[in-house]
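Hi R.,

Here are the chain sequences for the assembly we discussed:
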Amino acid sequence: MSKMHKEHTLTKNQQIIFDLIDKSPEPMKAYSILFSVQKKGINAPLQVYRALDKLVEIGKIHKIESRNAFIACHNSSCQVAKATAFSICEICEKVTEISSTGLSKYLTNFKDKDGMKYSKYNLEFFGSCKKCTPK
Amino acid sequence: MSKMHKEHTLTKNQQIIFDLIDKSPEPMKAYSILFSVQKKGINAPLQVYRALDKLVEIGKIHKIESRNAFIACHNSSCQVAKATAFSICEICEKVTEISSTGLSKYLTNFKDKDGMKYSKYNLEFFGSCKKCTPK
DNA sequence: ATATTAATGTTATATTATTACACAATGTTA
DNA sequence: TAACATTGTGTAATAATATAACATTAATAT
Ligand SMILES: [Zn+2]
Ligand SMILES: [Zn+2]
Ligand SMILES: [Zn+2]
Ligand SMILES: [Zn+2]
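And here is the predicted structure of the full complex:
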């Protein structure tokens, strides 16, 4: 197994919660996750938040900050867990992870006036998706 | 008074809360604001959140989503209330609004695969500021 | 003046997230 | 293996963030 791409073996709770988010067509909120996994023996918010923290850390999921919700990474298990971009439809709340080499190159190399170098970014675009945009 | 740049006369609550945020060297959280303005007769969370909502709407302040905190706009009363970018130091939590024509042009014109056109974006860079970066 | 819209004040409640503590499983090193 | 360190778990309590519902008042528009 390559060093570049360490497989994190998920623990039971992490796997249950990842599977749920991964199957969901839309971002899931922590307490909605909690409700859904109670039948599987996960009873407390903290159990959910701990799994979410870990999953975010290893890049299996991302947090949509403006929505306090979580979405599975579909950028081939995100090399770029630390460089995320999403489009969010303000009508139907559909969220899509943007995978654009141009964009990520531009942002990764961006330097501000102070010369501060960034290790991470999160970008959220808002608008109206194709389905929701009147022709 | 020009139509392009309508001056919003702030109401009493809005003005009190804007002044507080504007004077603050760091982003302020809603309940910290509440605590600070109680001596001025603002007693309830909702009074704070309503003022914050309005101030965000008219571009006098911005919300730092990853921190649930609010910062005054210093881009000359943000023409671009809907196109915001910040740098955030993960060590000292200093937050700076980025004002880069290049960046805002790039992002404003960005189109994803689906051709979805965006009306708004928020970008947050994370890293270590000059002061916090070891030489 | 009247209708409409925006803001206020207040109470209660909903939603999101963390602290604290005891314990168990797993991994590392001697 | 034994000892240690690290990570994950379970549970209870609580903190922090945000909104709903309702009555009232102030500001704007016709
Ligand atoms: Zn991803
Ligand atoms: Zn949509
Ligand atoms: Zn601004
Ligand atoms: Zn710093």
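Residues 12-72 of chain A form a domain with the Arc Repressor Mutant, subunit A fold (CATH 1.10.10.10). Residues 11, 29-31, 45-46, 49, 68 of chain A lie near DNA strand C (CB under 10 Å from a C1').

Let me know if anything looks off.

Best,
T.
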